[in-house]
Amino acid sequence: MVEIKTEQSIDEMRAAGRVVARALAAVRDAARVGVSLLELDRVARGVLTGAGASSPFLGYRPQFAPVPFPGVICASVNDAIVHGIPDGRRLSDGDLVSIDCGARLGGWVGDAAVSFTVGRPRPADLRLIETAEAALAAGIAAAVPGNRIGDIAHAVGTVCRAAGYGIMEDFGGHGVGRSMHEDPAVPNEGRPGRGMALRPGMVLAIEPMLTAGGRDDYRCDADGWTLRTVDGSRAAHAEHTVAITAGGPRILTAL
Ligand code: MG
Ligand code: MG
């Protein structure tokens, strides 16, 4: 069941999305060699609290999870793809960091992710991150009325595959609204012209997750949350919450 949002609801979602954008910007600003993931989580908490927002991540416990999620951000470093728990790990020179963050404000949720490096970056990591961002941009460009979910999936997947990267099989984007995860699923690979038709008022999280090794499989840490590449290669994640409108895609989680 896909909920179509009114223009006013989308404006309210934009307010939630702006909080996410500010939290991610603050985390990125604070991230440097020697800073712990827990400290980054505290930075994000400060932004959420200051804005009067709550976290849809904190305490989240889907069926697969053995424990509720303990942070307001997912912090996934190097070979961690997504869902990394922000713990006492300190960032090292050249680390590739993916931060996913959500905010709930006025009952509406925003959801976005960024990837970046700390210290001296590896050129291969920069290329991976740039490709994740390009895949996200291609997916957003395809999020227009008249297209279908498969057009977004195809746009994202084409950019990733052309660069030789792998795509997570079981994880992808989703509808967003009063809950973080709503219908429809938005895969990161698919066939153009297939799937649900896109209509104004649909709000989707589009989120390519790329693995440098080109493999599509992953394994889960003993913590029950952190997903890692099987071959140890690095991964990048980029995400925006996007509203489909008659005037084109509206990014709700931009600054
Ligand atoms: Mg997210
Ligand atoms: Mg998401």
What does this structure look like?
This protein has a single domain (7-251), classed as Creatine Amidinohydrolase, CATH 3.90.230.10. Helices cover 28% and strands 25% of the residues. It has helices at residues 7-30, 37-50, 123-141, 149-162, and strands spanning 73-77, 80-82, 96-105, 108-117, 166-167, 173-175, 182-186, 203-206, 209-211, 218-220, 227-229, 235-237, 240-245, 248-251. The strands form 4 sheets. It has a 5-stranded antiparallel beta sheet with strand order 7-6-8-13-14. Strand 6 and strand 7 form a beta hairpin. The longest helix has 24 residues, at 7-30. The two termini are 30 Å apart. Bound molecules: magnesium ion (MG) (2 copies).
